[in-house]
Amino acid sequence: MIKQVFINLPVADLQKSVAFFAALGFSKNPQMSSDTGACIVMSDAIFVMLSTHDGFRNFTPKSICDTKTAVEVLVSLCCENREEVDGLVAKAIASGGSTYDKPEDLGFMYSHSFVDLDGHGWGLFCVRET
After folding, report:
1. Taking the domain 5-127, which CATH number applies?
2. By the 8 A CB rule, do 114 and 43 touch?
3. Which one of 79, 80, 81, 121 is least enclosed by Cβ atoms within 10 Å?
4. The model scores a pTM over 0.85
């Protein structure tokens, strides 16, 4: 059984990206961080490994996606409630991120999204209890 998820993402400016995620309320694990990478703790089971482009190239022979013109991945996170979804999107925008859509309320689920400083897409949603 899988116990944890580590999402690995290349970033142009490691310090700016760490500050961006800190502004969203996430912490950095210093034991799993270095000059070329930082471990962002999202929960007990979800971690984002931010790596400089040079550091990221140690993990794959493929080229790094230009997120200005292409999508490499969309990461979706399940939040506690609508307020958490809206709050994280607002913090992301205030910290230099952006959004490309409007919130969507489907009755059973509420969602919105943001794009971080490096163009990675983050979908946020909450499911209503029935």
Report:
1. 3.10.180.10
2. no
3. 80
4. yes
